[in-house]
């Protein structure tokens, strides 16, 4: 799943120094603790809270790209989405660890047929939509069918769809039936696959499987009021201004052990400046406030206050499954040697400073981590310390046709993204290349990168997908082919397509084997792809987020990269 298009943090090294002592895990008394041994240990604020009631104010600098589960490939939408929609299975967060796939609307994580070619799910009894009507297997099938209408839903998740047998299906609006999904009765749904897929329970946790009642489908307007199957429903939504979620009276807690649903409501302010968010949270001017903005909306001008005892006790933190990259448009920067030279010229240390320094993440050599099954060490010429290799870069460019000008696109909501471009400008100047910075509105950022106006270079990120312990859910969307294998996939921002390697990835989708066996193969094909330098990993993120003093159970989700809304509580 794509990382947040917006992010907030100042771009000076003092941020890392100011926070050198702010780390650790949760303490027995429910406050935040400090651990000198592990600066990246999770911080949980006042956990163990179980009281219901109250309102949580969520301060955000921009609106959600979409609230439609069928058109969502963003972690922010997935985070808030778990409040108002449910899926067959769920990626349940635990601070500091990859999420675990657990049953949600289904009674279990699925039953595979003996040959592995189909998976069957049975719905729990008593699950209902917000209007009290029962959720049936047909509603889930219809939600999946919508995601095939890619002329309408340009950001529809494709991982589940790519595993199913209907490559030619175009969605419900063009008629026809999705034959690979059967609903023999209202409680049973059966998926027929192209090939056996042991990762299918993770695919069933994607927002594709959120139920959508066909009679309530308003296509692109569905984002304004998605029909709730979760503990909350949309009370009001003013785009770009405010979203209010209130309790869904037809949600049955006995069917849903995954969501605590403690607050009575959530109010999202969708146009608060990042500096204001940081100031309000640090000053505790609203004790019921949190933010979903990346890195907790922290600003450099406020960092000195983060070591204050009051603020440290309200500081949630966690190492994420999110790794930020610099993506090359391989269709415009075609020569792999030129891309490699550019990668070697990058000062990733200086880029890390834009994220606040070492306290906010580690220099990354790969998008794949040692928490993934089948781990293989990265194959890379990048300096592990992040220092540039200018001499090697210049040598690679000898005799090459070197572009005089390149473009760098960045989301215009975050100073650090522009500042990364400034670092790259200085680096590439050493190679005789003029890098021009191109701001892109944050709300349209990933749509732009997927479209015709993709710049030559862009910052992006990925948060591990449906199963952060599986390399496939990073490799396949990040550098893999389209569903039919004929071009690059829509989440493949570098537009990487190699006849041999892309076919290898396409075939890997349908191979059977243990998680470790398949993981090794995905690691191997990823390392082969990286020899052509379609992208450059640079930061494995650690997020800190200050919350109001009345907020409890605040943990940073490994997948979401912000406060996990399914666990948070608030004092009345």
From TrEMBL:
UniProt domain Solute-binding protein family: residue ranges: 100-470
PROSITE patterns per the UniProt record, alphabetical: PROKAR_LIPOPROTEIN
Signal peptide range in chain numbering: 1-28
Keywords: Signal
The keyword Flavoprotein appears for this protein: no
Transmembrane segments annotated in the record for this chain: none
Gene3D superfamilies in the cross-refs: Dipeptide-binding Protein, Domain 3, Periplasmic binding protein-like II
Record region (Disordered): 197-233
Pfam families: SBP_bac_5
PANTHER family tied to this protein: ABC TRANSPORTER SUBSTRATE-BINDING PROTEIN, PERIPLASMIC BINDING COMPONENT OF ABC TRANSPORTER
Protein name per Swiss-Prot or TrEMBL: ABC transporter substrate-binding protein
Taxonomic lineage from the root: Bacteria, Bacillati, Actinomycetota, Actinomycetes, Micrococcales
């Amino acid at each position: 799943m794509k990382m947040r298009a917006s992010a907030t943090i100042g771009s000076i090294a003092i941020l890392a120094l100011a926070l050198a002592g702010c780390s650790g895990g949760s303490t027995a008394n429910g406050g935040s603790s400090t651990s000198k041994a592990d600066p990246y240990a999770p911080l949980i604020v006042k956990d163990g809270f179980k009281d219901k009631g109250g309102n949580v104010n969520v301060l955000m600098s921009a609106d959600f790209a979409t609230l439609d589960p069928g058109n969502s490939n963003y972690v922010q939408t997935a985070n808030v989405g778990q409040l108002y929609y449910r899926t067959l299975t769920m990626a349940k967060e635990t601070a500091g660890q990859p999420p675990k796939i657990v049953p949600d609307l289904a009674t279990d994580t699925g039953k595979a047929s003996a040959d592995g070619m189909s998976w069957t799910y049975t719905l729990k009894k008593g699950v209902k939509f917000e209007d009290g009507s029962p959720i049936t297997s047909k509603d889930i099938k219809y939600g999946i069918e919508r995601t095939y209408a890619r002329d309408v839903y340009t950001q529809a998740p494709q991982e589940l769809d790519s595993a199913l047998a209907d490559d030619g299906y175009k969605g419900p609006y063009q008629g026809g039936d999705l034959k690979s999904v059967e609903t023999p009765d209202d409680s049973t749904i059966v998926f027929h696959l192209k090939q056996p897929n042991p990762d299918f329970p993770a695919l069933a946790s994607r927002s594709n499987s959120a139920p959508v009642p066909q009679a309530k489908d308003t296509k692109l307007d569905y984002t304004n009021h998605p029909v709730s199957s979760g503990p909350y429903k949309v009370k009001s939504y003013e785009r770009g201004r405010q979203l209010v979620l209130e309790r869904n009276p037809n949600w049955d807690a006995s069917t849903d052990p995954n969501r605590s649903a403690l607050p009575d409501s959530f109010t999202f302010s969708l146009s608060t400046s990042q500096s204001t968010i940081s100031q309000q949270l640090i000053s505790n001017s609203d004790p019921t406030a949190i933010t979903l903005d990346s890195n907790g909306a922290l600003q450099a001008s406020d960092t000195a206050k983060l070591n204050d005892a009051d603020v440290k006790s309200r500081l949630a933190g966690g190492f994420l499954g999110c790794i930020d990259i610099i993506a090359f448009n391989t269709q415009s920067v075609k020569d792999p040697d030129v891309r490699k030279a550019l990668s070697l010229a990058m000062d990733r240390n200086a880029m890390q400073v834009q994220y606040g320094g070492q306290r906010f993440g580690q220099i990354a050599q790969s998008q794949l981590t040692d928490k993934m099954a089948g781990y293989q060490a990265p194959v890379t010429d990048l300096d592990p310390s992040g220092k540039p290799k200018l001499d090697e870069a210049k040598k690679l460019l000898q005799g090459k046709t070197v572009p005089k000008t390149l473009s760098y696109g960045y989301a215009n909501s975050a100073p650090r993204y522009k500042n990364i471009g400034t670092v790259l400008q200085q680096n590439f100047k050493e190679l005789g290349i003029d890098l021009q910075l191109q701001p892109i509105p944050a709300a349209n950022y990933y749509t732009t990168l997927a479209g015709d106006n993709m710049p030559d270079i862009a910052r992006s990120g990925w948060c591990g997908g449906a199963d952060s312990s599986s390399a496939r859910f990073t490799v396949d969307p990040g550098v893999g082919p389209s569903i039919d294998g004929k071009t690059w996939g829509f989440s493949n921002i570098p537009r990487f397509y190699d006849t041999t390697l892309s076919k290898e990835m396409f075939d890997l989708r349908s191979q059977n084997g243990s998680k470790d066996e398949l993981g090794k193969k995905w690691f191997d094909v990823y390392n082969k792809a990286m020899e052509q330098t379609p992208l450059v990993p640079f930061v494995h993120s650690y997020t800190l987020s200050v919350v109001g003093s009345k907020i409890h159970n605040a943990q940073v989700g490994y997948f979401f990269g912000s406060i996990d809304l399914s666990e948070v509580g608030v004092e009345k």
